Amino acid sequence: MSKIKVLMFGWEFPPFKSGGLGTACHDLTKGLAQEDVKVTFVMPHAPNGANAKFVKLIGTNALAKNVNIKTVDSPLTPYMNESTYEQHLSNGGKNNAIYGKNLILEVKRYTALAEHVARNEEHDIIHAHDWMTYQAAIKAKRASKKPLVVHLHATEFDRTGGHPDPRISHIEYEGLNAADVVITNSEFSKKNILTHYKIPANKIKVVHWGIDEENIPKGTYKAANENIVLFLGRVTIQKGPDYFIETAKKVLEYEPNTTFVIAGDGDMLPRIINRTAELGIANNVIFTGALRGDDVHKAFKTAKLYVMPSVSEPFGLVALESIKNGTPVLLSKTSGVSEVVQNALKADFWDIDSMTNKIVSVLRHSALREDLSTNAKQESAKFTLREPARKVKEIYETLRKH
């Protein structure tokens, strides 16, 4: 049988990325390339030079022949909402004569080129990542009559803490309904889809994520005799930074020489900074802003514990990055990654006392910390690119046969 050709719609790809989705898309396409699947990836236009960097990255890889990049000129970035899109325009972004006057119009503009791409790029399968791309993928499906795989990394209900924008949730529903197969990253996420959308359960396939071992630096940045507890992610309601700060206040009652690092940006950042001052713990909290590249791994390697207190986390790829770096993790039970990582501490995101006890135990007991680190890193060997890519390829093959 001939090589499978996939037309994939997304809106970020390293080095142009603002969250785990870009890493997930990169790693999935790399894994698919290893499985001899040819991918054409359609994405919004990256900043100057970003696409060149990406082509260079892929060009130096023996798998380059299996990945082709198409860009659509657009200021879209992942996890944008209406206010952040308008802020982008008001802060000197592309003018309104070129780009949509609001986020929904911008998504429609991105969608407008889908039919042209579908008619001119040879493909067997259409694969779309998250809501911004779903309308484009539906249009492509109508043009080429090829099967559609919709990949849902996080629902609008996840991102907003249960207060969805009805326009976005409707687009999500349209994409899920139009798909021949829905892929999601965990049983937790599948349950959320079934709760919020009337989609047949047998149409949803769970594919847990893996991670690219090659991206983890081999060097060490471990700081001596420092109690550093790390939050790394978007500072949004979904990720639970408010619970992290409340927990920090309680931990400092027992371990006053602890430093809490919040690495990330997001719409809750001013509120979290203010709350830190209100609690009187500003001297023990460092805000780094969003980190990129090797700085992410340095942050993990200097921390004694990574805490992921997410309110609703369909997977949580960042937790795999932590354990690959040898840093123990405390995971929210409402996360997909907690389904597959056994050597981790786990707590309910709202249970400040439980999280406090677990953090203090890790800081005080080096044997516990070392056991978690060693065992989790050994366990992480099974979280590779090949396994999720193999499962996705099986889905493609089944669809192509029908």
Side-by-side strand order of the widest sheet: 3-2-1-4-5-6-7
CATH class descriptor of the largest domain: Alpha Beta
For the biggest sheet, the summary is:
7 strands, parallel
Q: How does the helix and strand content classify structurally?
A: alpha/beta
Number of DSSP helical runs: 17
SSE arrangement, N to C: EHEHEHHHEHEHHEHEEHEHEHEHEHEHHH
Radius of gyration: 21 Å
The stretches of 5 or more residues where confidence is low (pLDDT under 50) are 46-67, 95-101
Report the count of strand segments: 13
Distance N terminus to C terminus? 14 Å
**Overall geometric form:** globular
The CATH architecture name of the largest domain reads 3-Layer(aba) Sandwich
Count of distinct structural domains: 2
The overall pLDDT, averaged over residues, is 83
CATH superfamily heading of the largest domain:
Glycogen Phosphorylase B
SS strand fraction:
15-25%
Helix content bin: 40-55%
What fold name goes in the CATH topology slot of the largest domain?
Answer: Rossmann fold
